[in-house]
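queue> pop job 88
queue> type: inverse folding (structure -> sequence)
queue> payload:
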């Protein structure tokens, strides 16, 4: 075996190297041209890469260094199923490379992993091409380069978790070929399993496509391939079963916490138009990856030429053309028909980055181009020339008749470059067919042209990302890191029991999972929707299905309830009970003397606590009073008075007020004054009448020399204007920016009675249960004066199990959000243990399916004993 591998590498290393490193270095050079390289001031992080992927990879680094459990993290919002997060964001084979980077240098890790994944896609397609097409060896490289650098991959290169799919797709299809032609299912089994484990989302799309591909290829030779239906079914099911070790926990988690299915409200997909397929096959066409985009399907003009040639040459059976053409028809129809489009996305409309399955169109173009090139002969000059001229005509017609509104983003240079390269490809092929150059010269010329074309297109894609999203400055991520980490580490040294912390000047919404502290904020497709929904009812903003939840702009009651013991802030948070304890760089650490532990005892009537609809202050009051056995009225409303305004017109309505800017792109400033009583924490209440119209609108509140900026539709309602121990007339200013108008319910000032608040907090603290949380467990002791309930702020998940004095007890769900258990009178040892729902069945399936596949392969490969008939002596006829 070793000799075979050595011989294979010795024979093929130039082609393997070229297939990997040409796409790799194309990306390196273009990144370098826009100022991205290891240690550069501009990072590779754009769009979700900054807030999500950098922090999630940093958290995986924490796991690899033993700082966090692989099953559960206390550092994503209040607590989260981490195995499920891995299956969606971190399942790739290259993710463990973060082990060799410090979290402060994660931008460099993402840079390297992105390059490796792009290069691996090229190498994977070379493996497919070498085992599929009969063509010159460099011809396989000629096809692998455009595949690795197709527009979908480069235009979405910041979505690092998708890039693994482009490596597995050619291997899955090659696995189907080997199963159908050689009865060898191993490659298909391994490729399917690794694909689903790396990212079940993209795996679903490739799984559907590969199933359709199997059917189409089977129908090309039904008599032979119909015998492969059962082997394909067995291999696919066993691979899918083996992948359940990660997929099953994720699916069960998403079923409980994921997005709802999207409704079909229209037949035709939005923003698509007649010439989309043609326009998006031009060189360097980038519209957007936000809303209103059309599919990214460009994979190079040479593959397009030979893909068209596949359908016009007589060397390919008509039946094959119709069958493989049907795959194109399905994909194109999906681009335009909403129900089909939703199906590819698992019946959930994507949040930007539309048509996420369009890379399958690009793959199909390259795949059929290889078969077309196989059939290309010297006497095909007229046919190939005609095909190329037809493409030139179609591109020109599309440009000449395009709707300026639909295709205004396409520059004339895109058409010029497209026509120039079509002529260059045609000229090279004509020279070969006229026997002016040999085949190996033609292949060399085509590789040079393909690489140049891919370079130009990739440059347009990456610069499109730069314009569309901007690649974030490294300093935004790395500069605050040492100071924040120093303060976070200090809190860890000072605490033996569980606590939570939040940064009022965060780097991103997912800082906690990076720095290793438990907070409230989270932006993730993997989340605990029910706990976020309840926290939304209590004033933390988490609208819809809880994709986002934010800490800022809530009250002291909620700081205490969820156990916020510390705030990190660049300025004084102006909060009652918060005292500065340390400083690092521009950040200071403030400790909250009124925080509550992870668990606290309550009477069984706690389950009956009222939850007034659309009234988070009343919800906070009801819950706090129930926990403290008090009947306090914590909140009082005051009417502030406007004393100054700049660049704003105020439009008063019966139930709301609108602030309209007078000069465009200039902030709308309003200054209020209000009389605040003694011992009061004061907040300005700003509740938008329409969240959707305020996506880009911010509010910066300035009071007592400090300022705090918030995104209005993302953060909470209560903007802190400070604590006052004496009666004070407070003047504060809010600067609105981002939209021409902002509309709110009539703004009020909310006063929190800190004396009443402190009494209730003390009462709850006296019934607290100090738990220590580590890994996937939370343990501690509690003493109950009577039969009561231990209520925790641990988000409820079916993976939790509870033990009292070593005996398992049933978990009772509080408001569908938090874990609680009954406890009897006396002192008890409490233990909460987490294991993701579905993990153990997934492990069993993993072992059984891999074992079953090994047995299946051995049984099917076992040589059959031939039945030998005994020789009979012929009688001589006399």
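queue> result:
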């Amino acid at each position: 075996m070793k000799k075979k591998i050595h011989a294979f590498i010795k024979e093929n290393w130039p082609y393997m190297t070229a297939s990997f490193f040409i796409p790799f270095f194309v990306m390196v050079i273009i990144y370098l041209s826009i100022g991205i390289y290891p240690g550069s001031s501009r990072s590779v992080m754009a769009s979700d890469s900054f807030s999500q992927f950098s922090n999630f990879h940093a958290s995986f680094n924490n796991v690899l260094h033993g700082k966090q459990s692989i099953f559960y993290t206390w550092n994503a919002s209040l607590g989260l199923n981490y195995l499920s997060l891995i299956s969606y964001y971190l399942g790739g084979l290259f993710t463990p490379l973060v082990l060799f980077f410090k979290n402060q240098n994660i931008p460099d890790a993402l840079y390297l992993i992105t390059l490796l994944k792009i290069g691996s896609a090229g190498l994977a397609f070379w493996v497919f091409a070498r085992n599929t097409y009969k063509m010159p060896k460099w011809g396989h490289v000629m096809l692998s380069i455009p595949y690795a650098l197709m527009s979908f991959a480069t235009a979405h290169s910041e979505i690092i978790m998708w890039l693994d799919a482009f490596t597995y797709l050619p291997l899955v299809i090659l696995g189907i070929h080997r199963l159908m032609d050689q009865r060898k299912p191993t490659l298909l089994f391994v490729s399917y399993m690794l694909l689903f484990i790396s990212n079940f989302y993209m795996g679903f799309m490739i799984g559907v496509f590969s199933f359709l591909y199997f059917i189409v290829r089977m129908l090309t030779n039904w008599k032979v391939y119909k015998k492969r239906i059962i082997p394909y079914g067995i291999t696919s099911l066993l691979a899918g079963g083996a992948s359940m070790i990660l997929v099953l926990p994720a699916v069960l988690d998403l079923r409980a916490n994921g997005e709802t299915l999207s409704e079909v409200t229209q037949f035709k997909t939005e923003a698509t138009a007649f010439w989309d397929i043609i326009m998006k096959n031009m060189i360097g066409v980038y519209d957007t990856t936000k809303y209103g985009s059309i599919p990214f399907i460009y994979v190079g003009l040479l593959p397009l030429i030979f893909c068209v040639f596949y359908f016009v040459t007589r060397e390919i059976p008509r039946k094959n053309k119709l069958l493989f053409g049907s795959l194109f028809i399905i994909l194109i129809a999906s681009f335009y028909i909403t129900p089909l489009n939703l199906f590819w996305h698992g019946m959930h409309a994507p949040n930007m980055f539309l048509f996420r399955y369009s890379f399958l169109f690009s793959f199909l173009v390259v795949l059929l181009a290889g078969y077309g090139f196989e059939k290309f002969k010297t006497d095909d000059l007229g046919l190939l020339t005609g095909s190329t001229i037809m493409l030139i005509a179609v591109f020109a017609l599309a440009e000449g008749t395009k709707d300026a509104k639909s295709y205004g983003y396409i520059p004339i240079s895109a058409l010029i470059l497209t026509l120039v390269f079509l002529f260059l490809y045609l000229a090279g092929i004509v020279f070969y067919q006229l026997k002016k150059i040999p085949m190996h010269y033609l292949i060399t010329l085509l590789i040079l042209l393909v690489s140049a074309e891919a370079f130009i297109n990739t440059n347009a894609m990456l610069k499109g990302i730069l314009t569309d999203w901007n690649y974030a400055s490294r300093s935004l991520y790395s500069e605050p890191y040492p100071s924040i980490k120093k303060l976070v580490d200090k809190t860890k040294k000072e605490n033996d029991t569980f606590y939570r912390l939040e940064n009022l000047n965060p780097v991103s919404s997912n800082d906690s999972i990076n720095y290793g502290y438990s907070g409230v904020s989270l932006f993730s497709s993997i989340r605990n929707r029910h706990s976020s929904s309840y926290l939304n009812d209590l004033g933390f903003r988490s609208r819809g299905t809880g994709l986002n939840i934010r800490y800022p702009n809530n009250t002291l009651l909620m700081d205490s309830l969820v156990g916020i013991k510390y705030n990190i802030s660049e300025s004084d948070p102006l909060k009652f009970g918060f005292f500065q304890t340390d400083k690092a760089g521009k950040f200071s650490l403030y400790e909250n003397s009124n925080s509550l532990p992870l668990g606290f005892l309550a009477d069984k009537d706690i389950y009956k606590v009222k939850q007034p609809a659309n009234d988070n202050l009343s919800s906070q009051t009801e819950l706090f009073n129930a926990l403290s056995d008090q009947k306090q009225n914590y909140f009082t409303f005051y009417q502030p008075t406007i004393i100054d305004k700049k660049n704003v017109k105020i439009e008063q309505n019966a139930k709301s007020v609108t602030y309209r800017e007078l000069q465009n792109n200039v902030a709308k400033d309003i200054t209020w004054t209000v009389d605040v009583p003694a011992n009061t924490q004061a907040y300005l209440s700003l509740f938008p009448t329409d969240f959707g119209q305020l996506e880009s609108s911010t509010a910066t509140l300035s009071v007592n020399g400090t300022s705090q900026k918030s995104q209005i539709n993302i953060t909470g309602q209560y903007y802190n204007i400070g604590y006052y121990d004496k009666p004070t007339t407070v003047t504060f200013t809010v600067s609105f920016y981002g939209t021409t108008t902002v509309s709110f319910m009539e703004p009020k000032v909310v006063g929190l009675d800190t004396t009443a608040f402190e009494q209730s907090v003390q009462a709850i603290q006296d019934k607290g249960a100090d738990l220590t949380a580590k890994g996937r467990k939370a343990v501690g002791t509690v003493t109950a004066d009577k039969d009561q309930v231990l209520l925790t702020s641990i988000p409820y998940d079916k993976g939790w199990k509870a033990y009292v004095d070593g005996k398992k007890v049933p978990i009772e769900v509080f408001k569908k959000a938090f874990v609680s258990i009954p406890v009897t009178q006396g002192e008890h040892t409490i233990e909460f243990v987490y294991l993701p729902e579905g993990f153990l069945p997934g492990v069993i399936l993993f072992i059984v399916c891999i074992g079953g596949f090994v047995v299946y392969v051995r049984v099917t490969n076992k040589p059959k004993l031939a039945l030998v008939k005994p020789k009979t002596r012929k009688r001589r006829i006399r």
